[in-house]
Amino acid sequence: CNSASIMFLLLLLTCPMCLPKGDNKNLTYTYSWPKCKQNHSAANVAGFNSLPGHIKDFLYYRHCRHFPMLLDLPDKCGGPEGSADVFLLLVIKSSPKNYNRREVLRNTWAKERLQNGVWIRRLFILGTQNSGFEKTTLNNLLEIEHRKYKDILQWDFHDTFYNLTLKQILFLEWMETNCPHVRFMLNGDDDVFANTDNMVEYLKNLEDNDGSKHLFAGHLVKNVGPIRYPDSKYYIPVQVYKSESYPLYCSGGGFILSGYTARTIYNMSHSIILLPIDDVYMAMCLEKAGLHPESHSGIKALGLQIPDKSADPYDPCFYREILLVHRFLSVHMLVMWHHLHNPQLNCSLSTKM
Q1: Which H/E stretch holds residue 141?
Q2: pLDDT digits (tens, 9 = 90+) for 230-266
Q3: I want to staple 268 with a disulfide (CB 3.0 to 4.6 A). Which of 41, 133, 244, 285 is the partner?
Q4: Looking at the domain 64-299, which fold is it?
């Protein structure tokens, strides 16, 4: 048995009523988009045959902007008009196999709740993975989660690193229809630790911005360009992106944006060809709109640098005032969340950042 099959069986044992029944007609919803076909003319690009397979696939399907939806939640935000009541929407990029990560998030920082008088809602956005029995098992797992938690959006595209931009655009298209008036969003990976209590406080204290004005804040990356080394995870050949520089962007591990900015990015995306690096692509959309990302010192997309090398790197006092830290193991996330909500937590001056 593989890990996905084991997770699927465990969930059935702990929640047998969650098993999808019948033909699931009322569980799934498919937009009327046909399956996108390969653009064979992409092979005419100079040097195409020398490119790695995943780059070739990206170029073959780069034009594809619409995919059938497998799991939908059109009423997640209370309908288009009710979406204004959602103060912070947590949009978490996950992969079908990452069930354990999603479970921890549901019980820690991504828990749906009324926080400081405003509503936090949660969504995981996914495609499909693998093929054959493995793909079927993972899709069944997501259907069970969807029925139990009502927090899964899934499209019928291959969920890979090079399709993260596609995932972002598909979500923004969905948001435009179903949650157009959401005030703010956290967009992040499923391995970030987000102090959403602090996030709500920060957003509520913004001057003259209730989500109807521009906000795009995170860990700024500047003066960098595409990596041309084929062995790199972030490899971008000139056939995909010719320029040697990227615009100023926020690291994609996690950033905060307003509903206004999310809509602006979506509108700009209609006229900008897709780039596999999703955080750079969103910056391209901002740049076209004449907007810019900004730095927030509480967002640590590259991890938290502890000044005292002899200190416990998971001392909760280091994390008490941050908004987000990237690359957090699930076990540390669960413990950290409970530590931070311990009323007896006592932080000395020696453990402040």
Answers
A1: helix 132-149
A2: 999 999 999 999 999 999 999 999 999 999 999 999 9
A3: 285
A4: Spore Coat Polysaccharide Biosynthesis Protein SpsA; Chain A (3.90.550)
